[in-house]
Design a protein that fits this description.
Blueprint (H helix, E strand, L loop, with lengths): L1 H14 L5 H13 L1 H72 L3 E10 L2 E10 L2 E9 L5 E13 L13 E11 L3 E11 L13 H10 E8 L2 E8 L3 H5 L1 E4 L5 E4 L2 E4 L5 E4 L1 E8 L16 E3 L8
Parallel strand pairs: 6-14
Antiparallel strand pairs: 1-2, 1-13, 2-3, 3-4, 4-5, 5-6, 7-8, 8-9, 9-10, 10-13, 11-12
Helix pairs in contact: 1-2, 1-3, 2-3, 3-4
Bound molecules: zinc ion.
Amino acid sequence: MKECKVVQDLLPNYIENLTNEETNKFIEEHLKNCEQCKKIYDNMKKDLNVDNKTKEKKKVKFLKKYRNKLRVLEIILLIIVVAFVINTGRKMYIIADLNNKSEEYVNSENYHRITYSLDNGNYTKSEIFSLGDKKKLIITTMTEDARKQVITIYATKTGTVPDTKYATTYPPTEIYKQNMYKETETEKIAILDLEIGMSVDVQKAFWGVDNTKDLILTAITSSINKATFNGEECYYVSGTQNILLNTGMYVDKDTGLMIATMASEYENPDGEKGRIAGAEYKYEFGAVTEDDFVEPDINDYTIQDANNNISE
Ligand SMILES: [Zn+2]
């Protein structure tokens, strides 16, 4: 009876193979001869087996669940990748299409562009009349204290600044011979025969996007959404590719031209807050005539030279 107690104490370890050989022999010898201990042993073993089986089942269930979760993650990831590719493709298509459309207007020989902008409280309306090499610029400024100034420039292109740094991304700066007429409420001044470099252009929305790499990069970094501006259906484009995209712009669907940019705040190197103009652009093609280049009567003006000296 005393031996039974010892054997029964050892049984759990014996079943789990934790006992040494001598003990095993002792237990096995005892089990052969003791009905009661054999019964206990059989029951224990059965219980353990059942226990192991449920453990096994649980393990399989867990693995299945885990695998299902992985599958779901894979599918979600795949959906994200596919959505990204489709969206980038969509943007590439829109940008390429707008670029194509704008090409016709960028090289237009005859256009009239009006720009309205508000920059640091100064309201400016600038107009460009372009007829081949002839340009007329009218810049009307309304300051915060409601003082109005109109500068009209008649310019004729005489050359192009060769190979500027920006020649590939922006229209090259052109040289113009020009007469300038300035009119305020108190004075009328004319400065004649100036030679000045300037860029006069139609506002194509996507300057410099002329290869596949730029197209992909611009598509990835910019967001393009359908929008309306002054009742016209257009695209709203914003992103990180360049300053204009960064602040956002409205692009005409039919011409690929910029019709508005958003004003944005900036800080200059002196730590002063300023604002980059938000502007609105209006275009008219084929309507400029020679009549737009008839200069005013010089006798109404005080003549200055380029150094602001009044000449006799
Ligand atoms: Zn026994």
